[in-house]
């Protein structure tokens, strides 16, 4: 596996002369799903790949050990075992299919650790949001402390939010400096930087924020918290993955991508995988460089797998809820 | 799936989970095949609402699927009897169809739209099988545009009485369409034709006949009366027979420039209307301020849409030198993701080339580039071994002299040329005989608009390419043809003024072409009246030619005496030859850009000023008309007053319709016929062209040119910039010959003899200048309907559409 992106010195020139044409980006986004499609066993395989890239998420005020534990068990056993057997994926040994991670609030990390241990799922990383998620409007000191605590509690991945106040006022150096500190606070834990693109105002800002976070050492750049008005749309995704490509071409470091919020259907998942494959290549279709932040997506994929195996459409109650 | 011989194990879910490969995603062809079977895989013509198979043994043509080579069905090769039968059916249907109320015609078009929509998937599949184009494109582009066109024109049919007041249907339209968008392009012809009350006989291209036949059947199902839309199939010569049929009133053609020229010559002088949508070599101009990643996708749309077999294909990439390397690298990377395959596979980017002969043409072009030492890049992607395929190709290291840069390839081949500045980019973009389309890529809106306006092409897209809509007329300049398909501008191709009837002349004969305009200048002659008059001779009045804003001595140094009806010489005018034509056209070209850039208000002021100055000289000019033509003075005064009014009329139009983008043309109005209105005719012809921003060369009445020459003093006192109106006198036919043969004239209006009209139309084919001729018939210039109708405006412009997709806001 390639080295983590260590980041580079802040370089203002990398975010100058950025040109993004939104209508043209939208056109590409609209036609991605019409240029590519997968059917039959290809579709099944793609959907299972998508499962392996899901950060199965619950981020709610009413999360308790009950639903967090259920989520963890589901992450460990994302597709009904008879269906997995039917598609011939039961003998994959260590590749045994799980989701990419579980994603929770910092206060629920320990619940996760307990549950994953109980269901023999300790290989599944716990991702925790941090830094005053979702708004990030808390002092830097407490935001950094939140990261350290989460890592200490067992989070192997930290999803931080960037400082939108700085981004919107053009203080990109400020954004860089904060993310740099957050990266340090993460230590060995992987850093995913949430751009909250729905609050950045323009695609040029989305691109700049992507580039600045990568320069500061992000392992992943992530679209949204799921709490903004507009979340993971394909046009936003395109702009971000193109920034990833540019960063890779300049530095030879591969940064991952995580669209989050609003991805609900199996078809959406395939389109996103196509986007990664077409714009960045096969390397970016695996969980080390690609994640979905989603909660209901898994259910729809499981229904599609049911259909692939049985030729019938499943009733919701036939599949274990997350 | 492609015959790759992969084992089942290889395609197991577990293995595919690891590889994440794409698999085959075939569109079902069972309904399409059933439709072919319904017809016994043997199609005839569709005439007068019925399938028609001539009883004798006609030749058959087997239509094939280019993706697989599989024979789809037999079709018939028609002959002239079939053309005659179809045209008769259309003529018969015209009697009732043209007299239906616009609302009823609107209902019919609406019904067709609905029925095509109902059969949308079948039509898409048939089109993809027959042509080899990806099902994704027929499903998402071709057929939705077909449906959209019918709906849009149902609207025009409904609105004809209000929006097209003063116009009437032409009669029977002969439509000949190509194989690249078999159904879509035929729709572009039949929709406006039917909406305006015409009937149609259509000949689809040889390779791709099926969707035309299917549409005929669908129209019948939709309740279209028999004979309104007829489809006949045959070879190229058969298309020629359709165009030449005397009872065809209009020929609408989309196809190659060569065939367009043949059709122009064969219909010259027959009184048929003609619109031609021909080839292109459209530029994609990319600046360093462009979103390069999006530009790459735009180029995919521009030149790899429909295998590059698109008349508006963006086949010349002109890129800012500073970003050339970056863009080319991005393109090369992009090409590694291309998927080429069976047209019915839903997950391909590029389908099959329509026919082996076309594939060979493309391959020959690319080989010629290789031999020139160009770098030819074709990504190592898999190409099916069966079927007619050619990989997407990128050629660098070529220049303006290279064959692949100059000629239309009509295949998935892009050539790349760098430029230094925006000015150079425009020059390169226009360095082509074509003028169909183009695109500009930059986030600098001022630059984008300036370049878009300066690219001489009928459609220019900003930050996009190959976007079409029924409301935006599509068509070219220069050798890309004339006329527009779509929008209100497209309707004028299918109507004529209500007062006018079609002239019917025989096709042109060889001797006219050879001998027209070869005359000798006059020699001195002693006239009876010149000696006997008075003792003191009047001051000799010798007019010079007028071009570039100054009086010029004729190059040949020959002159021509102008006599009044009593035979008295009233003035001497210069005798123009081909060099004077050359000079006048040059002067017009010099003036045109500046004139076109003037504010419309300023142009209007100048035209009003002409009227003002003419009013000042009302007595003098009225007397001049009277003495020159022998008209009584009262009539002459009326002609001057009418002329003043006409200048006001066109002055008024100067700054109206500001929303329509026009492209400036060098128009050359040749007028000779209205000898009875030497001043009014002259003004009626130059004014509408000039107010729309054109520069003109005018040949006034051969018999009575003096008032036109007097008028140049009016031009000079009215602040008209030099070169906007240029006047050449002398032998009418002689000047017309050299104007018609001039390659740098974009349009020619001719009001003269039938023979002259034929000559002008015939000769115009060489550079495809747009023509307007009178076929030797007269019009009443003093009648506003005939002397200042909307047709003057229509002939003064060709609509250009500039597309600017907008929007930068995507969230909060």
TrEMBL record, chain A:
Active site: 222, 258
Gene3D superfamilies linked: Aldolase class I (3.20.20.70)
Metabolic or biological pathway: Carbohydrate degradation; 2-deoxy-D-ribose 1-phosphate degradation; D-glyceraldehyde 3-phosphate and acetaldehyde from 2-deoxy-alpha-D-ribose 1-phosphate: step 2/2
Localization (cell): Cytoplasmic granule; Nucleus
EC number of this enzyme: 4.1.2.4
Coiled-coil spans in chain: none
Keyword Nucleus: yes
Subunit structure: Interacts with YBX1.
Role: Catalyzes a reversible aldol reaction between acetaldehyde and D-glyceraldehyde 3-phosphate to generate 2-deoxy-D-ribose 5-phosphate. Participates in stress granule (SG) assembly. May allow ATP production from extracellular deoxyinosine in conditions of energy deprivation.
Name listed for the protein in its UniProt record: Deoxyribose-phosphate aldolase
Source organism of the structure: Lottia gigantea (Giant owl limpet)
Automatic annotation (TrEMBL), chain B:
InterPro entries, sorted: Ald_DH/histidinol_DH, Ald_DH_C, Ald_DH_CS_GLU, Ald_DH_N, Aldehyde_DH, Aldehyde_DH_dom
GO molecular function annotation: oxidoreductase activity, acting on the aldehyde or oxo group of donors, NAD or NADP as acceptor
Top-level taxon of the source organism: Eukaryota
Keyword Oxidoreductase: yes
Gene3D superfamilies assigned to the protein according to its UniProt record, in alphabetical order: Aldehyde Dehydrogenase, Chain A, domain 1, Aldehyde Dehydrogenase, Chain A, domain 2
Pfam families assigned to the protein according to its UniProt record, in alphabetical order: Aldedh
Sorted UniProt keywords: Oxidoreductase
Annotated PROSITE patterns: ALDEHYDE_DEHYDR_GLU (PS00687)
Annotated ranges, domain Aldehyde dehydrogenase: 54-497, 563-778
Keyword Oxidoreductase: yes
Catalytic residues as annotated in Swiss-Prot or TrEMBL: 277
Protein family per UniProt: Belongs to the aldehyde dehydrogenase family.
Name of the protein described by the UniProt record: Aldehyde dehydrogenase domain-containing protein
Lineage: Eukaryota, Metazoa, Spiralia, Lophotrochozoa, Mollusca
């Amino acid at each position: 596996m390639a080295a983590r992106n260590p980041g580079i010195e802040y370089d203002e020139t990398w975010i100058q002369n950025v040109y993004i044409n939104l209508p043209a980006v939208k056109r590409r986004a609209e036609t991605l799903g019409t240029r590519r499609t997968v059917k039959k066993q290809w579709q099944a395989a793609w959907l299972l790949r998508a499962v392996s890239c899901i950060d199965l998420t619950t981020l709610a005020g009413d999360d308790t050990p009950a639903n967090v534990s259920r989520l963890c068990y589901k992450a460990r056993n994302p597709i009904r075992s008879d269906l997995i057997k039917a598609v011939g994926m039961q003998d994959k040994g260590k590749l045994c299919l799980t989701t990419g991670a579980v994603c929770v609030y910092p206060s629920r990390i320990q619940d996760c650790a307990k549950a994953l241990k109980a269901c023999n799922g300790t290989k599944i990383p716990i991702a925790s949001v941090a830094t005053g998620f979702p708004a990030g409007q808390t002092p830097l000191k407490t935001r950094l402390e939140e990261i350290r605590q989460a890592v200490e509690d067992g989070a192997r991945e930290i999803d931080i939010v960037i400082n939108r106040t700085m981004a919107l006022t053009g203080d990109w150096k400020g954004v860089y400096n904060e993310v740099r500190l957050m990266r340090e606070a993460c230590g060995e834990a992987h850093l995913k930087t949430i751009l909250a693109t729905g609050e950045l105002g323009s695609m040029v800002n989305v691109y700049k924020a992507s580039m600045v976070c990568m320069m500061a050492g992000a392992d992943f750049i992530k679209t949204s918290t799921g709490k903004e008005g507009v979340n993971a749309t394909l046009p936003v995704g395109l702009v971000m993955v193109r920034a990833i490509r540019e960063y890779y071409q300049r530095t030879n470091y591969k940064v991952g991508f995580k669209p989050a919020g609003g991805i609900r259907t199996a078809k959406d998942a395939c389109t996103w995988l196509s986007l990664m494959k077409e714009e960045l290549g096969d390397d970016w279709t695996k969980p080390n460089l690609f994640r979905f932040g989603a909660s209901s997506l898994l259910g729809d994929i499981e229904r599609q797998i049911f259909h692939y195996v049985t030729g019938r459409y499943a009733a919701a109650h036939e599949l274990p809820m997350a | 799936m492609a015959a790759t011989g992969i084992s089942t194990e290889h395609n197991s879910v577990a293995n595919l989970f690891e590889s994440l490969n794409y698999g085959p995603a075939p569109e079902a062809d069972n309904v399409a095949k059933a439709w072919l079977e319904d017809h016994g895989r043997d199609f005839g013509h569709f005439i007068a609402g019925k399938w028609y198979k001539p009883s004798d043994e006609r030749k058959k043509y087997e239509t094939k699927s280019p993706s697989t080579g599989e024979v789809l069905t037999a079709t018939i090769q028609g002959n002239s009897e079939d053309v005659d039968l179809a045209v008769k059916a259309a003529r018969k249907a015209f009697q009732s169809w043209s007299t239906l109320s616009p609302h009823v015609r609107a209902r019919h078009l609406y019904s067709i739209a609905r029925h095509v929509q109902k059969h949308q998937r079948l039509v898409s599949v048939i089109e993809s099988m027959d042509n080899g184009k990806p099902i994704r494109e027929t499903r998402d582009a071709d057929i939705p545009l077909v449906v959209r066109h019918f709906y849009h024109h149902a609207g025009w049919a409904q609105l004809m009485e209000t929006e097209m007041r003063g116009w009437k249907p032409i009669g029977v339209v002969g439509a000949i369409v190509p194989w690249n968008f078999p159904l879509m392009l035929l729709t572009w012809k039949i929709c406006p034709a039917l909406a305006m009350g015409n009937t149609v006989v259509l000949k689809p291209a040889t390779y791709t006949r099926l969707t035309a036949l299917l549409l005929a059947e669908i129209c019948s199902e939709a309740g279209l009366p028999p004979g309104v839309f007829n489809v006949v199939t045959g070879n190229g010569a058969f298309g020629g027979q359709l165009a030449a049929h005397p009872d065809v009133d209009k020929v609408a053609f989309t196809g190659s420039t060569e065939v367009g020229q043949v059709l122009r010559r064969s219909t010259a002088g027959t009184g048929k209307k003609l619109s031609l949508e021909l080839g292109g070599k459209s530029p994609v101009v990319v600046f360093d301020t462009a979103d390069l990643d999006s530009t790459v996708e735009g180029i995919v749309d521009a030149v790899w849409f429909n295998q590059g077999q698109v008349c508006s294909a963006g086949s010349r990439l002109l890129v800012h030198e500073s970003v050339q390397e970056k863009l080319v690298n991005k393109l090369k990377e992009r090409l590694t993701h291309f998927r080429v395959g069976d047209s019915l596979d839903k997950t391909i980017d590029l389908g099959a080339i329509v026919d082996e002969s076309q594939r060979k043409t493309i391959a020959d072009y690319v080989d010629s580039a290789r031999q020139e030492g160009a770098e030819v890049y074709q990504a190592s992607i898999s190409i099916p071994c069966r079927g007619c395929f050619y990989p997407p190709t990128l050629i660098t290291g070529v220049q303006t002299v290279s064959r692949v840069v100059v000629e239309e390839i009509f295949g998935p081949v892009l050539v790349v040329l760098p430029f230094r500045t925006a000015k150079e980019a425009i020059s390169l973009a226009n360095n082509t005989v074509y003028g169909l389309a183009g695109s500009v890529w930059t986030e600098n809106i001022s630059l984008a608009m300036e370049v878009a306006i300066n690219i001489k092409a009928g459609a220019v897209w900003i930050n996009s390419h190959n976007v079409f809509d029924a409301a935006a007329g599509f068509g070219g300049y220069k050798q890309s043809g004339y006329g527009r398909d779509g929008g209100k501008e497209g309707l004028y191709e299918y109507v004529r003024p209500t007062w006018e009837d079609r002239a019917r002349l025989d096709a042109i004969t060889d001797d006219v072409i050879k001998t027209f305009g070869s005359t000798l200048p006059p020699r001195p002659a002693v006239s009876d009246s010149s000696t006997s008059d008075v003792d003191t001779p009047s001051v000799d009045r010798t007019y010079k030619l007028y071009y570039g804003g100054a009086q010029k001595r004729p190059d040949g140094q020959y002159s021509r005496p102008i006599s009044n009806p009593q035979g008295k010489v009233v003035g001497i005018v210069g005798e123009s030859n081909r060099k004077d034509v050359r000079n006048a056209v040059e002067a017009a070209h010099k003036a045109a850009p500046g004139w076109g850039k003037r504010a419309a208000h300023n142009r209007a002021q100048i035209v009003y000023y002409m009227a003002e100055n003419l009013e000042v000289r009302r007595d003098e000019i009225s007397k001049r008309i009277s003495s020159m033509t022998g008209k009584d003075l009262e009539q002459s005064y009326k002609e001057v007053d009418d002329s003043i009014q006409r200048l006001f009329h066109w002055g008024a139009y100067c700054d109206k319709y500001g929303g329509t983008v026009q492209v400036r043309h060098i128009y050359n109005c040749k007028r000779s016929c209205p000898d009875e209105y030497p001043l009014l005719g002259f003004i009626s012809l130059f004014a509408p062209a000039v107010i729309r921003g054109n520069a003109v060369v005018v040949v006034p009445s051969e018999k009575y040119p003096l008032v036109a020459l007097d008028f140049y003093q009016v031009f000079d006192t009215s602040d008209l910039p030099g070169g906007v109106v240029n006047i050449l006198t002398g032998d009418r036919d002689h000047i017309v010959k050299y104007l018609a043969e001039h390659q740098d004239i974009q349009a020619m209006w001719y009001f003269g003899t039938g023979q002259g009209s034929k000559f002008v139309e015939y000769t115009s084919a060489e550079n495809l200048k747009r023509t307007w001729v009178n076929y030797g018939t007269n019009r009443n210039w003093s009648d506003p309907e005939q002397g200042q109708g909307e047709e003057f405006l229509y002939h003064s412009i060709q609509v250009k559409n500039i597309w600017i997709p907008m929007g930068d806001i995507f969230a909060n």
